[in-house]
Design goal:
34% of the residues are buried. The chain has 634 residues and is α/β, with parallel strands linked by helices. The two termini are 38 Å apart. The chain has 25 helices and 13 strands. GO terms for molecular function: ADP binding; DNA binding. It comes from Amycolatopsis regifaucium. Keywords: DNA-binding, Transcription, Transcription regulation.
Length: 634
Amino acid sequence: MLGPLEVVHLNAIITPTAAKLRQVLALLALHSGRVVRNEQILEELWEDNPPVSVTTTMQTYIYQLRKLLRLQRTGLPTSEEYDTRPLPSLQTSPGGYSLNYEPECLDAYRFEQLVNQGRLESSAGRWTDAAATLTHAGLLWRGPALADVNVGPVLHAEILRLDEFRRNALELRLEADLRLGRHHELIGELARLVGQEPTNESLQSKLIIALHRAGRRAEALRVYQQLRTALNQELGLDPSEELQRLHRAVLDADSSLDLPLDDEVQRVTLVEPQCQLPPRHNNLVSRDEPRSVALAALRAGESSGPATVVVTGPPASGKSAFAIDIAHSVRHQYPDGQLYARLIDDDGNPVDKNEILGHFLRALDNQHPDLPSGTHDRMLRFRSLTSDRRLLTVFEDVTNLDQLTGLMPSGDDCAVIVISRRRLAPSPSATVIELSPLDLEQSGVLLAGCLGRDKDGTPAAADKELLRLCDGLPGALETVANRLKVRPHWTPARTVRWIKAELARDGGATSDPLGLRAGVWQSYLCLTPPGRAAFRIVTEAPTGSVSTAELAARLSVPEYIAETILDELAELCLVTIQEDDSSSCHCLPCIRAVGHQLIEEHTRLSEMLTEGTEDTFDIPAQERFRLQYAQRAH
């Protein structure tokens, strides 16, 4: 209602398109749980010119609404629904109709509840709570009420009522912000509002006070003179006594206009911003070019919206270490706090947004632990709390943009770092940084650093072979270094033999020699069925390179579809496609070997579980869990 009419049912938009149906639906929805008399519907739709068959026409509209919106005559769920909550019902009553549903489903109801709550908080002097609640309420508006509905006299009266409620909520919120010492932030907003309503004395007085407290007395006096002129020319009136007293107080620099620093304001200013960033990685290889790009993109004050950097790359490419290092490097530019959240839990399941938002809200407003219960309300509260802050937020394990919906801060001075195994662009201005594998020299430096040794001289042949097996992936190099620390008697040559033997096992490796299995498996699960089939073909290729023509032939699809499938693999950084040659792809040898093992294991275990043989019980628990998780992901 608070904007264009929109009806959402089971995550699908089912808004009627017919003008009269929209009109009837809006009228019934705004009177939820109450009978709307036939006379009111007639007046709204036709005023004094009803059609000849008015009763039949009205009944037809009710029937069409029931059919279109799948509304029942009772609130009992149908067999088509996925839960047992009472459904909205459109009931016929003597002399009219009533639309019954949970009040929280209507944005206008939530708005009025929040405004009433904010009014109570203001009366109690809880200005921080009031400002947050009323800002939350204002964010529910998406435009003029019923902006795309042809309204008659009954709906017009409702719109006027909602607009007046909105105006009162705005002035209450402005008053709360002034009480909290946010006069600097309010000046621009108040100047815009005054420009829209030059004779609104309440808004003008707030602008004068904000300018005075900001030390801009001359501008405050000029605002008063402009108001006086507008009132005189348009209405033939003088400013009210209250405004005249305010004018004299500004002239006299009266201390009564200064901000009263009560306990509430002091408490707000003393809230300590939180830093939730994980610690920096001990052994971080130098990546000068992507680091410079990331730092430039996150430079505070140079973006028209939240500055966003997406860090992606192949499994074990050091995405998290790189992103966390960047976050620590720029944290001083975001003094209002640094938030961090993983969007996938240890079992590979998405973390509930409600939980993440609760975690964020407690960090941003730890003086008021009471949180909204609903996810939508928490989203709006988070937006209101971040609208005028300079905040850095880091999201890890992001696999699709839907995971970020409602979690992005709203302020232009905020910044976001997204760590993802998939190339994503949360906004048109987002900077996407894909980390490439290290070269041989960089790999040697990193391995030596992990082992606590100085890197000097040319590496021996066995050392070079060991570095090549890791394919320049920092995660693989660190896994090898950790194994060498606990087995110091191993030579590079022995380590090479062991890694090759593990990667060549037909039945799957008995260990994870390069630390790649979890990352490759998670990326594989993100693929569509055609993408999984294509990745299997890639892992079976001796060189790890597959052409579009070859893939099209193996999958029995046209080449343009094969190109699209290869693009999917590239977006998940499982293969690379050369810019000057999009007709083929290449997969790193270590990823190809691990991917081939995982797919073969999955196929074998699936067959065993499908057959239900007793051999299934001999499957190691870890492998059974991985298979069951994979089946859930399908």
